[in-house]
Amino acid sequence: MLAAACVLSVAVGSLSVPPGQVWQALSDPSVHTIAAEAVRSRVPRTVLGLLVGAALACSGAIMQGLTRNPLADPGILGINAGAAVAIVIAMAYIGLTSAAQYIWFALAGAGLAAGAVWAIGTGGRGHATPLRLALAGAVLAAVLTSFTQALLLPHAQLLQSFRSWQAGGIDGARFTQIEQVLPFFVIGAAMAACSGPTLNALALGDEIATGLGTHVGRARLFLAVAAVLLAATSTALAGPIGFVGLIVPHAVRAMVGADYRWVLAWCVVVGPLLLLVADVVGRVITRPADVQVGILTAIIGAPVFIGLLRTRRLGEL
Amino acid sequence: MSTGTLYAPRPVPGHDRELGAAGRSVRSRRRRRQLRWNLVVAGLALLVAALFLLSLCIGERTYSIAEVVQVIAGQHVPGASFGVGVLRLPRACGAVLAGAAFGVVGTCFQVLLRNTLASPDIIGVTAGANTAAVAGIILFGLSGLALTGLAVAGGLVTAVAIALLAWQGSGATSRLILVGIAAASMFDAATLWIMTRGSQWDIQAASRWLTGSLNGLSWASLAPLIGALLVGLPLVGLMSRQLGNLQLGDDVASGLGVRVSLTRAAIMLIGVVVLAAATATTGPIAFVSLLCGPIALNLVGAGHSSLLPAALVGAAMVLASDFIAAHLLLRSYPVGVVTGILGGLYLIVLLIRMGRRTRGSA
């Protein structure tokens, strides 16, 4: 299915290309038709969609395990917004232009936002109810978004380009940019790959996890760093995209059960699938203009979130 | 904003108990609380009046207070009649009205949902009104009363939808907040989508729906908001006692003779209409509805209705923020930028307080 989504992603757009020509364009560099160029220009976009989808889904899964909170998501908890405001500062006031430069700002912003949400949500008591955490995240995201807006207003020429970035999109992707931040994805993915057993232990509760030989504090820190790294890197490349990190882990858990090793592994497949399909849908519904994928994931994701709320008793949340 | 506290020292918890030991009657304490409430309201009203005059006097050209008073009294003063009467007066009135509306409605929501973070701009009602308003501007080319009506309808539909989706017997308020957060992000996405589709000119008009701005207010554009406030505020005022009883919990409130569901639905309904009318006039001025309730409560202390103080705090906040945004910064910003920064400061205060509380308990 993921392969099919990839093919769709390079084939469909304001100019649709039949699959046969897609293959021709990708395998034979000497073809220079419009269709072939269109297909080639869509390849980086697809690759970016794969990376970002996987990163966001894993980040969401880790956050849900870490906070023992089924409503955790880098978008809802304000972590994407933290990265976004830091990037805007870097672009507008320091004049950084490439993703490799401002990724450090994104990381710092996301880390600070995560710390702040955790502090407000738990009130320092170590365990937060989903309600408090989600509210803290929503308030923080709102504050940060209005900061972003304020920072942008004096820079009228940047405002337009930021608006589409702010909606969250994987259009305009280039391989050079992806290469620059690839190490961050790799480190994040490696950390996520190691975190399955830890998440399983934490899911049993702090006492049992300690009894099983897990250093709870250190494990939490490790997981938080992994989740923030993945979320910040995605935001640096594609803008703040919400709800992928929320929906995908739930869908995966419904398929493969609660073992986090499998959940994380499947997130790497299902996350990109959702993102690419949403992106393709966004290209088709308002041809020839694109709808940013972040807008679509929010419009698909919010009802899923509400559905989750309705199917569970609040005590279970 | 702190004028009130200067005259009415906040009671220290231990202090109260000592008073009881000294044999002071409940009545004297109640009287002191009433006195404090009166002082706070008077202080806030003075502050609003002072800020109102200040924002009328100072601008590109500065007019004397005498000139401004003459203009308000309806006399013709060359220059000032246009500068103050046509340009600044509607803007200042809009600030007062919108601030009061946001303050009252925010406080109502926070009390009803028993959560200081549950203001309408966080739980999706404002976002719904926004989306409707932006769609009205960009897709249907509306303005004026039709636009206000659409925003009100959007806010109402959103509120009802959130309530219906969240309604499942017990635990409804926390689920309401969570459903609202999801709805808010969905509507924000929809708003962005519509904005990216609009032409450059429409986006200019619609972009106030992202931050909130008092630019270009006229008497005609204020009319719907004035109407909504004239109907809505007295009704909320009438229900303020029931609202106070609801704060004690649903069971206690119904024991005190409050029809809980009916009251809650009625206050929410009025609140949404007033809020949407204000939003349609000025755009969502960030965080005013979130901040006013806690500030007013801190000023008057528990046990008294904080609706009127919250309205005054809101008016003062929007007036002051607009003045800062328009005149004191390097360039002129819309008012929402300053209130957004206030919201950030409030979050930091909240963080520090929570840190202190945990250190106290540990």
From TrEMBL, chain A:
UniProt keyword Transport present: yes
| Places the protein is found | Cell membrane
Official protein name in the record: Iron complex transport system permease protein
InterPro entries from the xrefs?
ABC_BtuC-like, ABC_transptr_permease_BtuC
Under Gene3D superfamilies, the record lists: ABC transporter involved in vitamin B12 uptake, BtuC
Gene Ontology biological process terms, A to Z: siderophore-iron import into cell
What is the scientific name of the source organism?
Propionibacterium cyclohexanicum
Q: Which GO terms describe its cellular component?
A: plasma membrane
Keyword terms of this UniProt record: Cell membrane, Membrane, Transmembrane, Transmembrane helix, Transport
Transmembrane segments annotated in the record for this chain: 43-63, 75-96, 102-121, 133-153, 221-248, 260-285, 291-309
SUPFAM superfamilies reported in the protein's UniProt record: ABC transporter involved in vitamin B12 uptake, BtuC (SSF81345)
PANTHER family attached to this UniProt entry: FE(3+) DICITRATE TRANSPORT SYSTEM PERMEASE PROTEIN FECC-RELATED, FERRIC ENTEROBACTIN TRANSPORT SYSTEM PERMEASE PROTEIN
This protein's membrane topology, according to the annotation, is:
Multi-pass membrane protein
Q: What family is it from?
A: Belongs to the binding-protein-dependent transport system permease family. FecCD subfamily.
A single MF term (Gene Ontology): transmembrane transporter activity
Automatic annotation (TrEMBL), chain B:
Q: Which UniProt keywords apply?
A: Cell membrane, Membrane, Transmembrane, Transmembrane helix, Transport
Q: Where in the cell is it found?
A: Cell membrane
Chain segments annotated as transmembrane: 37-56, 94-113, 133-164, 176-196, 216-236, 307-329, 335-352
Chief location of this protein within or outside the cell: membrane
User: Is the keyword Cytoplasm assigned to this protein?
Assistant: no
The GO terms describing molecular function are:
transmembrane transporter activity
Q: Which GO terms describe its cellular component?
A: plasma membrane
Topology term for the membrane: Multi-pass membrane protein
Q: Does the keyword Transport apply?
A: yes
Q: Where is this region: Disordered?
A: 1-25
InterPro entries xref list: ABC_BtuC-like, ABC_transptr_permease_BtuC
- Name it: Iron complex transport system permease protein
Give the organism the record lists.
Answer: Propionibacterium cyclohexanicum
